[in-house]
Write a structure and sequence with these properties.
Length: 373
Amino acid sequence: MDTINSFEICPKFEIQTYPAITFDGQNYIVVWSDNNFGGSYYYVAAARVTPGGVVLDTGVCISNGTGSSEYRAKIAYDGDRCLVVWPKSSGPVYGRFINSQCQPEGSVFTIASAPAGGPNIAFDGMNYLVVWFAGTYPTLELYGHLVSTQGVLVGSPISIALGNECHRWADVEFDGTNYLVVWQTGLNNAGQKIYGQFIGTDGSLLGGNFMICDNTYQERWWPAIAAADTNLIAVWGQGYSSACNIWGNVDVTVTGIQEDVGLTIRDAGLTLTVAPNPFSKQTQIRFMIHDSRYVEPELRNSNFEMRKYTLIIYDATGRLVKYSLLPTTYCLLPTAVSWEGTDQANRRLRSGVYFVTLEAGDYSATEKVLLIR
């Protein structure tokens, strides 16, 4: 990384702080707390930045811009527009949608009543999950609520971590099947632990809370979470004053599909690629066979016969959503098929992780693809 190429996103005179970011399939959307709109108060602003680093907006105030300050906004994309959530100082947690032009849509709405703070957000392809802590220090409890893409609160609030142990500063990630929420528990300067809780897309708690860090007495702060194909990583700060380091844990496994590819793509002499990836409207699935020695003898009668390859698409739970028999020439010719993010009945699939598998005899190759609506 060349820091000489760093650039200002908001070059205004007053103070801007606490940024957060997402990608909407075309541009990055950055949100932050901005001191330019309300005298001594900070309000949530947003701007688009292209993948090439061109800043398209000067900072649009997306809240009502009144009352007490708004800090630590978070943002997620649902395939159509973004939902931004933020807390007022000692006040409620609010939300508002912004479109692909970085313009607010609809009104600001309340997600959690005061006193509440530290919200975070993730999207599962159908709804958002917003998490936050409620109460006053040192008695802070952790809650969540599903929010639809129309801004409607779905069901009842979810009680994630209750009691007087001071649960706060949660992060949340969708692993393709379920949500994982991570947070810190413990009083200031008294040692904290990092905990996790899986939550289903219907808002149900899956199992109980579990500890992610070790059980030693340490100061631990600001956990964060991200998901890969097979497991999740949780990271946090740990230590005291000048001796604080970053720790992590990768022992939490993803709850969705884990693909057993059997004989590998290289063994089979196959090439399988999916691009663009992620995609929102259409992607190209390209494949070809490189070496005729890897085709089973009973499947080939001549060097130019039409063979059948099987293309299967699964969702993150392992459910088959599309199945095709694909004819291709036996010689070294690449083949491509389009996929518009639909199932076998040509119905639009929701945003999420999918697995594209190409099978040829006993051989298979799999590519993970992300559909963003």
